[in-house]
Specification:
The chain is built from 22 helices and 30 strands.
Length: about 750
C-alpha cells in the first residue's frame, strides 16, 4: 500500500512537514490529531506514533487495516509517475469544496486521493457534489460520464458533462436529484462491467435519463478515448438511447410508487411535525391507536413498506422509500410554523397529567384531581425508545407503603414517599436521589426496583457516561439510575444540574461543523455509591441524601425472589401512587407555604403529597429541611473552599480586604487542613476563588458566614462576616436526635 492510499483510512489528515502527517487516532477518543504518520528512512515502511500511547497494532485494527499494510509496496521502473492531475469540486457558487488528485503511472495504473482546501486529505464531513456543478445547473442537456478526465474531454467538445468523485464506485446521494430536475441527462458508460453498473446506477436515480453506448469503443475504453480517435459529440447526438425506469416512474395502478406511498401515508390520519429540538416526526393511526415515530427511523420505514405491500402485494423499492422519507421530512420541517412537543413517559396538558404505559396499544394513564384511569387515545404525543418496557396496569385502591418491603431506608420515609409520587409530576424540578450505604445495603437493587416503578426499561441502571452519551441517555429516559459511582466530574455535575432544573444544553450535531442541537429537559435522577458520591455544592443543593441500611443475614433474600415478589406488588404500589397523586392535585392549589426551602416547586408539591398521604405535609417539610441541613454539612466538609472559609472565620467576627489577599490567606492555612494549594480542588487564582465562593454562598450563609464583594480600581474587595461568632460554630457541634435526622452527626474533624 502506498502512503497516500494509507492516509485515506484516517480522519483529519494534514501535513506536518518533512514528509510527516498528523491525523486523528482511531484507537482512542481523539479530538486534536495526536497520531503521527510517516515513512522510515529507507522508505520501505510506514511508521505510526500516537502521542496518547496507543499501539500500532491497535491503531491498525481500529482503522480496518492489517500490519502488512504498513509495508510499502516497492515500485519498479514501470510505476514511475508520468502524470498528476488535480480536479476541483465546487459548490453552486463556484466555491472550492475539495480536490481529487489523480496520479498516472508508467505501467498504466493510477491512484487517487482527496484533499480539502486546508490540506486535510479526507472528505469526511465535507459537502459532496457532482463535478462541474455550476455549469451543470445552467445547462439543459448534461452528459454523465465516468471520471473527470472524460468530463473535461466532453466539456472541451462544447457540451456540458459531469461525473461523481469516486468513479465507478461512487454512491448516489439523494441531494444530487435536485441538480438534474427538468434536464435532459445522457449517461455514457465506459466499456466494461463496472462502467455499465455505474451508468445504470446513475440513470436509475434521474427520471428520464438515457444510456448511450458508443459504437466501436475498445474494451475498457471511454468517451475520452473515443473522442481522441476522431469521433465527435455530434455523432453521440445521433445515437439511440436506452431509457431506464426509475423508482418514481414505476407505475402502480396509474400512480408512481412514491405517489402511492404518499397517498397511503395521508390516509392514516398522519401528522407531520417538528418536536422541541426541530427533529422531524410522524404521528399516524395504526390498528386503531396512534403511534409516533421519527420519520427517518427504521420502524417507520418498515411500516411504510408493510402498508405498500398490503395495498399492492408487491414490495416498494428501497430507493423509493428513501425518496418518500425525504419528502415527508421536508414537509415536517417546513409545512407548519409551530412545533409539537413530544414527551417521555410523563406529560401535562390543560391541567391533566398523563403517564405513558408504553404498551403496544400506546395507552396512557390520565390523572386528574377527580381520579385516574386508562385512556386508549391520549391527546399528547409520547416518544418511544427501544429500551423502554411496558408498564403494568396499576390497581385502584393500591398501597404505596408496600415499597418499604423493598427499600430499607434508615430515615426520611415520608420525604421518600413524597419524592416517589412527585416523580410522576411533569414540568418541575425533581431533586436527585443520592443513595449511600455500606456493602450489602442493596443500593443497586433498590434503584433497579425504583426504575421499574417509575420508568420501566431494559436498562435499569447505567454507568455514568461521557457528556454526549449522558445527554442521549437523559433524552431517552424519564428516570435514570447511575449505579456504583465513585467520582463525578465538574462537567458531568453541571450537566446533571441542568437536567434537574430544566436548563438548556447545547451540543454540536455529529458529522457537522456548524449545526447545533439544543437539549432542554427535566429528568428524575438517582445516584448511588458506598459513600455520598456528590461533593459539588451545585448538585448537592439539588439532591436528597438517603442512607440505605445493610440488610441483616436473616432477612436477606435472593434477587430472583425479591423480583418475583415485587412484580406481584407492583400494580398495588403503582395504584397507590396514582391514588395519592390524584388527591394531591386537589390539595395543591390550596397550598401556601410561609417559607419555601430550596427546590421550591418540589417543596410545594411535596407538601400537597404529604397531606394526601394522611396529613403528613408538615412531616414532609421537617424531613426535607433536615435533609437540606445534612446536605449543607456535606458541602462544608467536602468543598475545599468552604472548609477553609469556615476555618479562616472561626475566630473572626469580620474580615475585609482584596480577593487576592483572601486567596493568599486561604493558601497559607490550607496545609494545616491537609489541603495542598497546588491540588486540582484548590482555586488556581483569585478570580476562580470568587466564582467558587459565589457557588457556595447559600451554604456558607447557613453556617453563619456571609460576604459581599465589590470591584474597585485597585482590585476586587470582599467583606466577610461571621454572623454567629463562637469558638466552635453551631453547625460543627455534635447534633443530638431531634426527631428529624434520626441520630447524632459529627461533621468536620
Amino acid at each position: 500500500m502506498d502512503l497516500q492510499t494509507f492516509l485515506l483510512h484516517f480522519s483529519s489528515v494534514r501535513e506536518a512537514g518533512n514528509g510527516q502527517y498528523k491525523a486523528l487516532c482511531p484507537a482512542h477518543e481523539d479530538h486534536n490529531p495526536s497520531l503521527s504518520i510517516g515513512l522510515s528512512k529507507d522508505g520501505r515502511r510506514i511508521l505510526l506514533h500516537c502521542f496518547a500511547g496507543c499501539t500500532e497494532k491497535n491503531i491498525m485494527k481500529k482503522a480496518g487495516l492489517t500490519m502488512n499494510d504498513l509495508i510499502m509496496k516497492q515500485k519498479d521502473s514501470s510505476q514511475v509517475e508520468v502524470c498528476k492531475q488535480t480536479y476541483e469540486y465546487v459548490d453552486a457558487e463556484g466555491t472550492l469544496l475539495y480536490r481529487r488528485i489523480r496520479t498516472d503511472y508508467a505501467n498504466g495504473s493510477k491512484s487517487f486521493y482527496f484533499e480539502q482546501p486546508n490540506g486535510v486529505k479526507t472528505v469526511k464531513g465535507v459537502q459532496r457534489v457532482p463535478y462541474n456543478l455550476p455549469n451543470v445547473l445552467k445547462a439543459q442537456t448534461v452528459f454523465f460520464v465516468e471520471g473527470e478526465k472524460c468530463a473535461n474531454a466532453v466539456n472541451a467538445a462544447g457540451r456540458t458533462a459531469t461525473t461523481l468523485d469516486s468513479g465507478s464506485n461512487s454512491h448516489w446521494l439523494s441531494e444530487y436529484n435536485s441538480y438534474f430536475d427538468g434536464k435532459t441527462v445522457i449517461v455514457i458508460p465506459d466499456n466494461d462491467e463496472p462502467g455499465e453498473k455505474y451508468a445504470r446506477r446513475i440513470a436509475s436515480n434521474i427520471p428520464g435519463a438515457k444510456i448511450i453506448h458508443l459504437p466501436g469503443l475498445a474494451e475498457k475504453g471511454d468517451i475520452y478515448d473515443w473522442l481522441q480517435a476522431g469521433h465527435t459529440m455530434d455523432e453521440v447526438d445521433a445515437l439511440p438511447g436506452m431509457s431506464m425506469g426509475t423508482p418514481d416512474t414505476q407505475k402502480v395502478s396509474g400512480a408512481t410508487q412514491a405517489e402511492k406511498l404518499l397517498e397511503l401515508v395521508e390516509t392514516n390520519g398522519t401528522i407531520l411535525f417538528r418536536n422541541q429540538t426541530n427533529d422531524p416526526f410522524v404521528s399516524f393511526t395504526r390498528d386503531g391507536h396512534r403511534e409516533t415515530l421519527p420519520i427517518g427511523s427504521s420502524d417507520f420505514k418498515n411500516w411504510l413498506q408493510k402498508c405498500y405491500y398490503d395495498e399492492t402485494g408487491k414490495p416498494a423499492k428501497k430507493d423509493t422509500i428513501s425518496q418518500v422519507i425525504e419528502v415527508l421530512t421536508a414537509k415536517a420541517r417546513f409545512s407548519q410554523d409551530d412545533t409539537i412537543p413530544l414527551f417521555t413517559r410523563v406529560a401535562e396538558k390543560d391541567g391533566v397529567f398523563w403517564y405513558d404505559l408504553t404498551s403496544p396499544k400506546w395507552q396512557a394513564i390520565k390523572i386528574t384531581a377527580d381520579g385516574w384511569g386508562t385512556e386508549d387515545d391520549p391527546p399528547v404525543l409520547f416518544s418511544r425508545y427501544r429500551h423502554q418496557k411496558p408498564q403494568v396496569i396499576p390497581r385502584k385502591g393500591g398501597d404505596i407503603e408496600k415499597i418499604f418491603d423493598y427499600v430499607n431506608l434508615g430515615q426520611y420515609h415520608t420525604l421518600f414517599l413524597c419524592w416517589l409520587v412527585a416523580a410522576f409530576v411533569p414540568n418541575m424540578p425533581h431533586p436527585a436521589l443520592i443513595f449511600y450505604g455500606e456493602k450489602g445495603a442493596a443500593k443497586t437493587t433498590t434503584c433497579s426496583l425504583l426504575k421499574q416503578v417509575i420508568d420501566p426499561s431494559a436498562l435499569e441502571t447505567l454507568a455514568l457516561p461521557n457528556a454526549r452519551s449522558l445527554l442521549l441517555s437523559l433524552q431517552s429516559h424519564w428516570f435514570l439510575n447511575f449505579d456504583n459511582i465513585s467520582n463525578i466530574s465538574e462537567e458531568t455535575s453541571d450537566t446533571l444540574c441542568r437536567a434537574i432544573t430544566g436548563g438548556g444544553i447545547q451540543l454540536r450535531k455529529l458529522f457537522t461543523d456548524s449545526e447545533d442541537v439544543i437539549y432542554t429537559f427535566q429528568r428524575c435522577i438517582s445516584l448511588n455509591g458506598i459513600n455520598n458520591v456528590v461533593n459539588r455544592a451545585d448538585l448537592l443543593d439539588r439532591s436528597i441524601l438517603l442512607e440505605l441500611r445493610r440488610i441483616s443475614e436473616d432477612k436477606r433474600r435472593e434477587i430472583r425472589e425479591v423480583q418475583s415478589n415485587f412484580l406481584v406488588d407492583l400494580p398495588s404500589i403503582l395504584g397507590g401512587i396514582f391514588d395519592t397523586l390524584s388527591r394531591a392535585m386537589a390539595i395543591y392549589p390550596t397550598v401556601k407555604l410561609d417559607k419555601l426551602p430550596r427546590m421550591a416547586d418540589f417543596a410545594r408539591w411535596g407538601y400537597a403529597i404529604g397531606e394526601a398521604l394522611g396529613g403528613k405535609g408538615q412531616e414532609f417539610l421537617s424531613e426535607y429541611t433536615a435533609n437540606i441541613e445534612s446536605q449543607n454539612v456535606e458541602v462544608l466538609n467536602s468543598d475545599v473552599v468552604a472548609t477553609l472559609m469556615v476555618a479562616f472565620m472561626q475566630d473572626r467576627a469580620e474580615w475585609y480586604g482584596r480577593v487576592s489577599d483572601l486567596f493568599i490567606e486561604l493558601s497559607a492555612i490550607a496545609p494545616a487542613y491537609g489541603i495542598s494549594p497546588l491540588s486540582r480542588d484548590f482555586p488556581s487564582q483569585p478570580n476562580v476563588l470568587s466564582k467558587r465562593l459565589n457557588s457556595i454562598r447559600s451554604n456558607l450563609e447557613i453556617a453563619g458566614i456571609s460576604f459581599e464583594s465589590r470591584p474597585k480600581t485597585t482590585g476586587t474587595f470582599i467583606s466577610v462576616v461571621n454572623n454567629d461568632i463562637s469558638p466552635l460554630p453551631p453547625y460543627l457541634h455534635t447534633h443530638g436526635d431531634n426527631g428529624d435526622n434520626g441520630g447524632n452527626m459529627e461533621v468536620l474533624k
